[in-house]
Design a protein that fits this description.
The complex is a heterotetramer, with two copies of chain A (80 residues) and two copies of chain B (137 residues). Chain A is 24% helix and 30% strand. Chain A has a five-stranded mixed sheet with strand order 2-1-5-3-4, covered by helices on one side. The mean pLDDT of chain A is 97. Chain A has two helices and five strands; from the N terminus they run E-H-E-H-E-E-E. Chain B has one domain: Molybdopterin biosynthesis MoaE subunit (Aldehyde Oxidoreductase, domain 3). In chain B, helix 2 runs antiparallel to helix 3. Chain B is built from three helices and nine strands; from the N terminus they run βαβββαβββαββ. In chain B, a hairpin with a 4-residue loop joins strand 8 and strand 9. The chains are: A alpha+beta (80), B alpha+beta (137). Chains in contact: A-B, B-C, C-D.
Chain lengths: 80, 137, 137, 80
């Protein structure tokens, strides 16, 4: 089990109803962790359309979930 | 030095432009992205931009650094707005100086293309007919 | 309407830019050509631009009209200086608005390329080591 | 014979020593007329590197020299 902080942006934040939350999870990887959160919050976006960041830097979906980390799921961007 | 930045408030272009003054620069190319009154056939009233600030700034700097590696330029800057914007308001500005115009144009184009593609900033459109929508292209 | 003009004196960009304000414009691309302190390895002190005014204005308008035919743009302007210019001074400005950035960049590039290639304006460089030379590339 | 006004620019003006002059010529075409002026003023630029304009509009080197016209020889341009 790892306790982590999750940041939500744009449509993910609207769906989650919060900008961030502290979550305890037994997921082995970031990919598995998103699957859990997607089920909980009903996120429309599949993992293939997202990128993931840990501690303010892009990370790999196969990275392990590490205790105390700050994880952000990045929906398709639309700046400019 | 910070070449990419986010601005939560309207920003003026003149000081950004003057920061790039350089006697070696024969060419300056600039791009302004502004809020359009329509998108994909729908009338738009305004926008809201949200950013993941820490990552957006890091990724924006990376884009500018790549522009320096790829093109023979003297300097470059990019500023992107966040928050609520009205029609016609400046959303993003890119400015590039170079000795010659080929590099200035190419780098300016590179920066705006990569910023739009990679930097974690999201646009929520507000429609004239009512309703709002996050754009996740 | 005159979209291309010659300016015998320094000109400000802001009024030119504002003349292009348009709620339909999501993209604005601009180019500034400035006096460089060197050319082909020689230190340059300043420039003089001479134009065949009547023909330059007609040919400049033709270039702008072609940009409208070729690219999906909303508006475009170009101003070219004549007379004596110091290092860093603005020699030519091009601004183009469009709904989207592809057209704005392409038209801006087209205008500066064609103006440089076709419009009867000539540059005389003044060298730091002394001497002046007309550029007839 | 036709009497015309000639405009000189840039290095041609420097070589001619005047910005314009009134010239009488028996040249049949603009090409032949430039050849005469080149000889008179010692212009370095060959006709192949110039364009020619009549009355403020680009013209063809094979056009006839017309009485009263205003002719400009256009050296390679270097604006921008």
């Amino acid at each position: 089990m790892a306790r982590v902080t999750v940041l939500y942006f744009a449509s993910l934040r609207d769906a989650a109803g919060v900008a961030s939350e502290s979550v305890q999870s037994d997921a082995g990887t970031l990919r598995g962790f998103y699957a859990q959160l997607r089920e909980r919050h009903g996120f429309a976006l599949p993992v293939e359309r997202l990128r993931v960041a840990v501690g303010g830097a892009f990370a790999s979906w196969d990275d392990a979930l590490r205790e105390g980390s700050e994880i952000a799921f990045i929906p398709p961007v639309s700046g400019g | 030095m910070s070449r990419f930045s986010l601005s939560p408030k309207p920003f003026g272009i003149a000081p950004l432009r003057h920061a790039l003054d350089d006697g070696r620069a024969g060419a300056f190319a600039a791009f302004e992205g502004r809020v359009r009154n329509h998108n994909e056939g729908r009338a738009v009233d305004g926008l809201h931009y949200e950013a993941y600030a820490a990552l957006a700034e890091a990724e924006g700097e990376r884009v500018l650094a790549e522009a320096f590696e790829r093109f023979d330029i003297l300097d470059a800057r990019c500023v992107h707005r966040t928050g609520d914007l009205a029609i016609g308001e400046l959303a993003v500005w890119v400015g590039v100086t170079a000795a010659h115009r080929d590099a200035a144009f190419a780098a300016c184009r590179y920066v705006i293309d990569e910023v739009k593609a990679r930097v974690p900033i999201w646009k929520r459109e507000r429609y004239a007919e009512g309703g709002e929508d996050w754009q996740h292209p």
